[in-house]
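Subject: mismatched residue count in predicted assembly?

I count 224 residues in my input, but I want to confirm that the predicted structure covers every chain. Input:
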Amino acid sequence: QKEVEQNSGPLSVPEGAIASLNCTYSDRGSQSFFWYRQYSGKSPELIMSIYSNGDKEDGRFTAQLNKASQYVSLLIRDSQPSDSATYLCAVTDSGGYQKVTFGTGTKLQVIP
Amino acid sequence: DADVTQTPRNRITKTGKRIMLECSQTKGHDRMYWYRQDPGLGLRLIYYSFDVKDINKGEISDGYSVSRQAQAKFSLSLESAIPNQTALYFCATSDPRGHGYTFGSGTRLTVV
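Triage response: the counts match. Full output below for your records.
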């Protein structure tokens, strides 16, 4: 069973601070990695994808991937109360169908 | 209109009843998925389909069946609903390049 692990939180950060969300995965052959944001009672929304080692930046979001350590992270700079949500890490497996396994999510609370 | 539409949005049904959840999409994607989400357990894959003639079981398919009526339509059925099928159900689509999922708004199903 391929696994994706996240700390469930809640992670509380003050407004304007950097929020750091972490995820580890078990399948060494995984090729694609995603971060989704999910507000309470709503559907997940894709916010970042990353496919190669290193950093990928998009606005206030930076995704970081380290395949050797099987570790992917999401940094949110200048955190806003509207960033308060659950963040899901998702990883494709190494099989032909590239099925996606989701972590259980980290709940982020940005305190005004 | 939403890219991925799920109906109904909410449903309460009795144990033993047959129920169908419907999903339609305008993304033009071949790949469609059904997930359920439970608190603390994250998103778990029920069934997935990569085209009209390709349907595959996910990790928790027991008690469920699906029908891919067309490229744009993918329905999930509970043949005889039981209380532990109470959950939030999501339909999702993706393209073959693996650029992440687009989720529907979800169906909140309660089995009493």
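The interface with chain A takes residues 35, 40-43, 45, 48, 50, 56, 58, 90, 98-106 of chain B (CB under 8 Å). Marking this ticket as 'not a bug'.
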